[in-house]
Structures are given as C-alpha cells and as structure tokens.
Amino acid sequence: MNSFNFNSKITVISIIVLAVISRLIPHPYNFAPFGAIALFSGALIHNRYAAVLWPCIAAWISGVILNNTLYAGMFPDFTWFDYNIFWQCLAYALTTFVGWKMLKGQASAFRLGSAALSSSFIFFIISNFGYWTSGLFYTKDLTGLMACYTSALPFYPASLAGDLLYTGTMFGIYYLVQKRFLLPQSVN
C-alpha cells in the first residue's frame, strides 16, 4: 500500500465504480456497498476531500438512477436528491474517517471486520435519525425516534452483511491486484 501510483489510483477507482454498479443489480434493501466504499476511500485515497466525496457521489448517482427508474412510483417528478441524502453522506463521511484511522496502512482481517461493523452502526444511527428528523414518518419526539429505530431493526442485518461482504471483497481485490500485477516482483 506504500506505492500508491497511477495504476493504484486506476485500480481504486475501478473497484469503487464496480461496487456502485453492483447497487443497480437487484438486492435486499440496505445491502449496499457505500459503507465499504467509504472505508476503502478513507484507507486508500490520499486526498481526504476526495475520499469523503467518493461514497457521497456514488450514493447520489445510484440514487438518482434508482429513484427515477425502480422507485419512480414513489416520486411524482424526476428526483435529483433523496430527502435523506444529507444524512447518508454524513454517515459516509464519518465512516471514511474510520477508514483513515483504522485501515490506512494496516488493513488486517480483524481491522476490516471491526471497521465494517462500525460502518453499519454509524449508518444505522445517523440515517435513521435523518428519517426521524424529516417528520414524514414519525412524530418529532422521543417516542417517534424510538419507533424509527425499532422499525429500522429488520433492515440492519442486510446492511451489516453488505458492509462485511463489500469491505472484504473490495480490499481483497485491491490487495490481490496490488500483489499480482502492480507491485514489483521480488527476485530470488
């Protein structure tokens, strides 16, 4: 991971793009790659602003596509922004920070698993808080907030599974490509 050259950048961007495309394939609700993209970006993209922007832009673009095709019945007009995108991006920004702190230069299996667990928890707390603040579904009191979190619990296992699977896959592919194709081979 020390030699982050042009080929490494292309590899990172390609893996992120493939992860975003995977969201457009039918999947269970909340089984998405964005927590993993945030961890991956935090660990491997040196520019911190770019690292935070990648998962947000990826979530926004895929949201525009899905909200205006698969979920078009939920929106009366073409939709550029989901009402919860701010809260999602806040969760991804915090998750990117987890990637910086936990995974930069030392992404062991334990650290990857711990970071993926953190990502799911951060997303659960922040995105559901955002749904609650919208006032669209729940009363704006403590009872409404607790009802929001309780209603979201059935979706948490898919979010956790997605974060674990995508995190392992994205980092695994990156290290495999780095080892096999990009880093100089040692000569005996």
Folded structure, characterized:
The chain has 188 residues and is mainly alpha-helical. The protein has one domain (6-182). The chain is built from seven helices and no strands. The chain has helices at 6-23, 34-44, 48-67, 85-103, 109-134, 142-152, 156-182. Residues 184-188 have low confidence and may be disordered.
Tally of individual helices: 7
Ends: how far apart? 22 Å
Strand content: under 5%
- Give the beta-strand count: 0
Tally of separate domains = 1
How much is the radius of gyration in Å? Answer: 18 Å
Strand/helix succession: HHHHHHH
Low-confidence stretches: 184-188
Give the helix/strand class: mainly alpha
**Major sheet characteristics:** none
Topology diagram in text:
Layout: H1 6-23, H2 34-44, H3 48-67, H4 85-103, H5 109-134, H6 142-152, H7 156-182
Helix pairs in contact: 1-2, 1-3, 1-7, 2-3, 2-4, 2-5, 2-7, 3-4, 4-5, 5-6, 5-7
What key phrases describe this protein's structure?
single chain; 188 residues; mainly alpha; 7 helices; globular; disordered C terminus
